[in-house]
Amino acid sequence: MNIDSMLSSQVPAQPSLERHSKMPSQSIESVMNRFVEFINTGNEDLAREVISPDAVFHAPSHPEPLRGPDGYMDVLGIMRSAFPDVQWTLEETVTEGDTVAARFTMRGTHDGEFFGIPASGNKISVQAMNFYYLADGQIVGERGQPDLLGVMQQIGALPAP
Fold it and tell me: Given pLDDT bands bounded at 50, 70 and 90, which one contains residue 18?
């Protein structure tokens, strides 16, 4: 079973995530590298370069999907207000067609409120597994699964096991 068939059996198709022409693997790598640069800098111009205006993002922090570069800037705003030094390291990717499975490590210092939890000063290091959907040299969708339980444990909001 390939990634496309697993996703289609688990997640209803969305018009904004329809497949477009296949991107060369070098282009996919370039898009992902620029995306990492964007999330680590918060550069809005870079966001508009790498994220489609029609992109749809599913984040556990929001009940409804976020849309386009501005939606992604909202998520980054939440993270940067709580962890001003937050940085993501792209650890590995698996690509099939125009879909990228990516594992990140997120690191930062809890220096601001995070979902009602006051700053603890604690350093965090957690993993995230995300799927990215690309078309025409841009990200058109993402389904992200950061380790929010790990974050909450590391900032002292929940007991560690």
Answer: very low
Alpha-carbon distance of 133 to 123, in angstroms, equals: 31
Where helices occur in the chain by DSSP H, the ranges are: 3-10, 25-41, 44-50, 68-82, 148-154
CA distance 24 to 59: 27
pTM check: above 0.90: no
How many Cβ atoms are within 10 Å of 113's Cβ, its own excluded?
12
State the amino acid at position 132 in one-letter form.
Y
- For residue 157 the two structure tokens come to 């909001």
Looking at residue 55, its pLDDT comes to: 98
HEC profile of 58-73: ECCCCCCCEEHHHHHH
Residue 138 near residue 100, CB atoms below 8 Å: no
- How far apart are the C-alpha atoms of 101 and 129, rounded to whole Å? 7
**Apex CA 20: angle with CA 19 and CA 26, to 5°?**
110
Helix (H) or strand (E) holding 36: helix 25-41
